[in-house]
Amino acid sequence: LSAPPPFILGSQSASRRALLEATGATFDALAPQLDERAIGDRLRDAPADLVQRIALAKADALVARLRAADHPPLSVPASSSVLLTGDQVVTFRGAIREKPADRAEARAFIESYAEAPCTTVQAICLHDLATGARVLGVSVAEVDLAPLPAHDVDAIVAGGDGHGDVLDCAGGLMIEHPLVAPHVRAVRGGLDSVMGLGSALLASLLRELRHGICSADALSPGGARDAVLRQRTWAVVGDVLNPSKPASRIVERLRAAGRDVRLVNPRDATGTCATSLADAGPGTVDAVNLVISPALGVAVVEQMHALGVRYLFCQPGADSPSVLARARELGLVTVRGCVLIDQLPPANSP
What we know:
The protein is an alpha/beta fold. The chain is built from 10 helices and 12 strands. The strands form 2 sheets. Strands 1, 2, 3, 4, 5, 6 and 7 form a 7-stranded mixed sheet that branches. A 5-stranded parallel sheet has the order 9-8-10-11-12, with helices on both faces. The longest helix is centred in the first third of the chain and has 21 residues, at about 45-65.
């Protein structure tokens, strides 16, 4: 993290504390004292929606505690700190898994991960206690585990070895445990994200907080649209070199509104524009305008996730159910519309 502020970490998780310490940030830890299971519907809510709602509820609960001075002494005044709350679930074959209810369930969870990859879905909320500004984001990672020997599962479930308690981990997933780590085949999306505090998402949210973006409003349709359209650096993905096509006119509209625009066409054979988001440098892309066949759109969404690009604007025809569903699964802030007719608000400051 670049010059992080002092934080109040709304968690007692040992892994989150260790990950935040590794960034060099100073912080106090304060538990939100909240019944998380009373929030949302585990059978109906999308995982990304559920973890965002819980992260926001934790922030609300802690803001109330801090205002009431109902907390132990802090090393830094609350008014000089940023409140950091989060939540995480594991999904396995479409079902949401939170912390195991008991050691029998923990065992069943651990043994099942040899059957298919599991996914972690994490939300982070930052709340500036001086200004009240709030930002919110989601990161998603996938873990592929080989079968663990039965005696290792026994030891992990029993605990008491100084490596944490499986009952404190969403889905009973402890890939940092020395008995689990040798059996990790692959992690896609960041080990720190799997452990509960993704540094890439945290850094992105800090930038948003400093730029005055209120991405916590992105849970509402109007807030999401404003958050996306305020982004400064865009990649337009489509037939961007053909002046008769909408993609080319979108490039002109965004540039006229003061945006830095990168040109991407996966089908380009001329060498005059990028064929993937990874090649759309220099620097980072904040948002993607998708104006391409849905057959190619899902791959672009996957590239966004891999690169940490969180904002997606889908033009008519590019907004297929498959594209929108995958973007939702990956926690992207997604809106539909037409940049050619939408009113563009001022861009974020550089």
